[in-house]
Each structure stands twice: as C-alpha cells, then as structure tokens.
Amino acid sequence: MGDLTEKTVLVTGASSGLGAQIALAVAAKGANVVLAARRQDRLTKVADQCRILSQAQAVAIQCDLEQVNEIDQLFTQIDRLFGRLDLVINAAGFGYLVPAVEMDYATTARMLRVNSLGVMLVSQLAAQRMLRQSAGEIVNVASIAGKIATPKSAVYAASKAALIAYDNALRLELKPAGINVMTVNPGPIETDFFKTADPTGQYLDSVAWLALNPVKFAALIVSKLGRHQRELNRPRLMAAANLGYQLAPKLGDWLAGTVFNFK
C-alpha cells in the first residue's frame, strides 16, 4: 500500500520487536497510528518516533490483551479520537519453549489468552466497525509454528494454530464486504521474543542463519496491505517445508523433530 494518509491504524504489541517496526512502517506511510501494548514507557517512545515519521497523530494506549475490559476501553478511545478504524495489525504475542509435560497451567492459559483469545477479540471489535464503514483490513501475526509444530513448542504452536483457523473463517465471513484478513506466519525473528521464550539464547543462536530481520519484515508486511493477500509466510524455506509437510506428514514429523528442531 503506497499511502496511508488520513487512515487510522491500530497496532498491538507495538512497544517493541516486530510490532514496533510495523508501527513505524505504517507511520512512514502517513497513517494516524494507535499503538497498544502493556509497557507504557516503551510505547510512548515508539509513538514519538511515529509522529516524526508521519507528521500525523500517534497515540500510545496501554492495553493488556489478557484483559477484556482493557480491550474494550482501547476501542472506546479509538472511536472517540478518530471515529473510524481502517486497519488493524495484531503483532502482540509471546512464547515459552518447554516440553508440554513441563508447562505449567498458568503459563498455558496466559499464552492462549494473549496469542489467541485477545487477538480474536481485537479482530472481532475491529470487524464490527469495518463492516459499518464497508472498508478495512485485519492483519494477524500468527507463526509458522502454527503450521509446523516442533518439540518444546506445543502450547505456543497451538495458540498460533488457533489464530490461523480463526482467520481462515473470518476471512470468508468478511470477504463479501470487501474486508480482507491477512495472516502473517513468520519463523524466528531477531527480536526480544526469545528472551522470554528461551532465556538461554541457544535457540536464537542456532537459527540465526534463517532468522528474519524485523525492520525488513515489517516493510514487507506493509507492502502487502491493500492487495487482498491471504497469507504471508516467511522465511521461504520454512514456507516450502510446510507445503511438504501437508503432502508427506510422516516425513514432516521426522523433519520437525530433527532438521527443524533447533531447541
């Protein structure tokens, strides 16, 4: 999409990592940006950068996607400040990579609330507004892990697979109104994600050769806006592996447990 001037864009998970880079990328296209995340201090800094790039509005709103009332308040503020919502990019999410039998219930529940349920609620509230204005686009950042699950990622993979399935249905529901839903499925990205997911740092070190650059990947995502693209899967090697997985699942299981198991 070439120009987002006068468009209102909501980016969740915008305080750091891919979400912050996406916020900066849409601001560079002239958008009014609403940035949402838990960490207000970091969010405010990104919003300041957005204003410089866009010469438009950038609003930092603290919001925890685990909390339904905070999501409701987020949309109330968007309605009050802008009166419309043209684009939502959900980049919020986290992972914790341990064997399924060792994962505690509290972390399991939190991961599903943030990665799946919170994003679904944001998408629903956005879709309601977009249907009223007969225009808009929803972009949800899921993961290649939602297509190719590997050891130590059972809960994370499940949370992203749920989001992929949700998007597939929502896309069909909104298509008659001309509203697109694009699912972004990245592999590993060079961000702070792994400080929580794998504090040892071993996983990111082992996949550094195929890890995505967040600045370049954010630019790629923004370049696909407005094209009614269904999915964006990167890196290409892992996207190709997913296709092979569907054709030969037993071989896919072997590869997922060996060649693509870097944890």
Automatic annotation (TrEMBL):
Query: By its UniProt entry, which InterPro entries does this protein fall under?
Result: KR_dom, NAD(P)-bd_dom_sf, SDR_fam
Q: Kindly indicate whether the keyword Transferase belongs to this entry.
A: no
Known EC number = 1.-.-.-
Per the database entry, which stretches of residues form a coiled coil? Answer: none
Which regions span the lipid bilayer? none
Q: Which family does it belong to?
A: Belongs to the short-chain dehydrogenases/reductases (SDR) family.
Gene3D superfamilies the record matches: NAD(P)-binding Rossmann-like Domain
Return the broad EC class. Answer: oxidoreductase
Q: Which GO terms describe its molecular function?
A: oxidoreductase activity
Which SUPFAM superfamilies is this protein grouped with? NAD(P)-binding Rossmann-fold domains (SSF51735)
- Any idea what this protein is called? SDR family oxidoreductase
- Lineage, top-rank taxon, reads Bacteria
Every copy of the Ketoreductase domain together lies at: 7-192
UniProt keyword list: Oxidoreductase
